[in-house]
Write a structure and sequence with these properties.
89% helix, elongated, 2 helices, mainly alpha, 72 residues
Length: 72
């Protein structure tokens, strides 16, 4: 009986810890994404290019650089 109370209490604590971690994780990732988008928008976009287009272009350019480096 006593052990089941401890198990139940432990499960409740674990659930609260996991929920809190998920909230913190969402806030941190969301904040980082906002900063990243603002940086790309301000410094890396070309005229008339959206942030998403700029990210795709940058990713493609990076892949091209990596493939050309590995072929040398």
């Amino acid at each position: 009986m006593a052990q089941s109370k401890f198990v139940k209490a432990n499960e409740e604590i674990a659930k609260k810890v996991v929920d809190t971690f998920e909230k913190i994780e969402e806030a941190v990732v969301g904040g980082y994404t906002k900063v990243e988008d603002a940086f790309v928008d301000r410094y890396l976009t070309r005229d008339g290019e959206t942030v998403e287009d700029a990210k795709a272009r940058l990713k493609q350019e990076q892949e091209q650089r990596e493939s050309s480096e590995s072929s040398q």
